[in-house]
């Protein structure tokens, strides 16, 4: 356990980088914080004020300005106590109050496990809401201290916080170039998320510690002698790789601890850029470099402005090691990133230098804003990175990015044109808002719709911001589009009918359509086609309803059969015998996609014939069914035929996310003379990918042979039927 921080220590640390720090204001903030939180304790039982004090100390270690440190002391008072913005403004001035309020606002951003794109939007949302980069720095310090002190939380809470930290906060720290905080956040998260691996790696590193140190010392001494001979002033140190980065390498590249090159690393810090290159030349002379491992991040900085020369060499005992060469300035930036520029600096060097740093931040964060005054830059740089965007949540928690000034109507059309065409109102954060309400960052937006498609109002054209919404509204009103929509709608309905084995004349009868039109509020059949054409309703939905009508009218399943079942032979469900029932409507279930050769069983549905499942399908497992449903299970078997028929089978392929793997898999499928009907690939965090492939095969045997072939594709771990 590290020693507790006191306000005296905090001040002492601040004085190290700012001898003239306004001690009284820091003490005043500390007293204020202690008083405001006096009634609270943390989960661990210690008084609450310890937390803001530690957060302030982390900020002081980043050598940030006094306002940031004071705001760190006060960061939880608006959220947790009766103190408000005006109180803070009066006590500590507008800047501190704004910082605290900014941190409080970020609390609104709730995280639930998300896809990559969503997480990226979530990170952008942080920037958009923070307005001042210092707000994010305080938030990172807050999260860091919370992560350090999670021991008394439930395991579930620990994992939840760790996942959020790994996906949102550590990448934020990385984006801002603050590698020190990024690494600590990652290691703390890993400890809770994969405890076993964490300690395995820590233990492994520990065992090799003395071996490593000896080796590094040997290299250091050699380099040190050569540097001296060259007359270059250099600090040489061994470098420890953090556990999480080792973990990632081990698990994504399937390496063991011994196979990771840069476990052994030496960092050389010199005075000038010229010295960096001279040193590089000397190092390459001394040891044999491994080809392809040299990287010049000085000429080509990383997006977060990290600069260094990296090279990997063969060491004295044949063990490879990495050397990083950089200047002191680069080193500071590598550790502290953007914080390096919020550092307190007594009397800014020159406005020129500050401008250069501003350019640095702007480039790093991809900003184009115009801030010229350097004082203003240091004190109150506002981050308008995403000034032209607003980030809001769907009720499900997905983040949607829209242009600044967008309204609920834009949101509705962003979600789906069908939502827009049915929209009658909107809520933001559970309160009804007018349709021309300007969405705010962090709003949870919900669109109220009617079941009938009534179409948009012309007035909406005046309040929408996105061209997507404008185009959809316009197309609704464009008469000439109607013909095209009707044609397109007809086409998709025909296509859908064909897919399920019917023709238009089967299902589109005056009787069946009458109900349909009434139900959705269409005036004519053409209205219905047109709605399908512009996407107001899907063809699948229309066809499903039509088929229901049809089956009801024909008293299905028994009556409907003869011609349906016959037609279905070609579609791959007719070669099945259902015990005791002739000539019934048979459907292969989509959940388990049985193919000839599989053990199968039937389930008599209500009005949709018999659905055929694989005997081991989890959806018909006895424990999932009521006794009444179990009664409806019926024995089935495949009938041997000469006729070749295509059946749909589905495979799930777990594989490494390497370049070209999808192409290799589809090539394997094509080489097996199997038709690929659909394919869906997703990648996950561990750099692995899950691919589902729907194929047409004639038998289980053919599907199994295909699976074997795919398994031979390099990088495929596992392959299963769905
Ligand atoms: Mn806090």
Tell me what the structure shows:
The structure is a single chain. The strands form five sheets. Strands 1, 2, 3, 4, 5 and 6 form a six-stranded mixed β-sheet that branches. A five-stranded mixed β-sheet has the order 12-16-14-15-13. A hairpin with a 5-residue loop joins strand 14 (600-604) and strand 15 (610-614). It is globular and about 90 Å long. It starts with 6 loop residues before the first helix and ends with a strand. 50% of the residues lie in helices and 15% in strands. The chain is built from 30 helices and 20 strands. It has 722 residues and is α+β, with helices and mostly antiparallel strands.
Short note summarizing the structure:
The chain has 722 residues and is α+β, with helices and mostly antiparallel strands. Helix content is 50%, strand content 15%.
Shape estimate: globular
> Describe the biggest sheet?
6 strands, mixed
Coarse structural class: alpha+beta
* Hetero compounds: manganese (II) ion
Give the percentage of residues in beta strands: 15-25%
Mean pLDDT: 80
Task: Give the total of beta strands.
Answer: 20
Report, as a whole number of angstroms, the end-to-end distance: 50 Å
Helix content: 40-55%
SSE topology sketch:
Elements: H1 7-17, H2 23-36, H3 50-61, H4 66-73, H5 77-80, H6 85-106, H7 116-130, H8 133-148, H9 155-175, H10 179-193, H11 195-207, H12 209-230, E1 234-238, H13 243-252, E2 265-270, H14 273-286, E3 288-289, E4 295-296, E5 309-314, E6 320-327, H15 328-336, H16 351-365, H17 374-380, E7 389-393, E8 399-403, H18 408-415, H19 417-422, E9 423-428, E10 431-433, E11 445-449, H20 460-463, H21 467-477, H22 479-500, H23 504-507, H24 510-520, H25 525-534, H26 539-553, H27 561-571, E12 576-578, E13 586-588, E14 600-604, E15 610-614, H28 627-631, E16 633-638, E17 647-656, H29 661-671, E18 675-683, E19 688-697, H30 700-711, E20 716-721
Parallel strand pairs: 2-6, 13-15
Antiparallel strand pairs: 1-2, 3-5, 4-5, 5-6, 7-8, 9-10, 9-11, 12-16, 14-15, 14-16, 17-19, 17-20, 18-19
Bound molecules: manganese (II) ion (MN).
Residues 51, 75-76, 142 line the site of manganese (II) ion (MN).
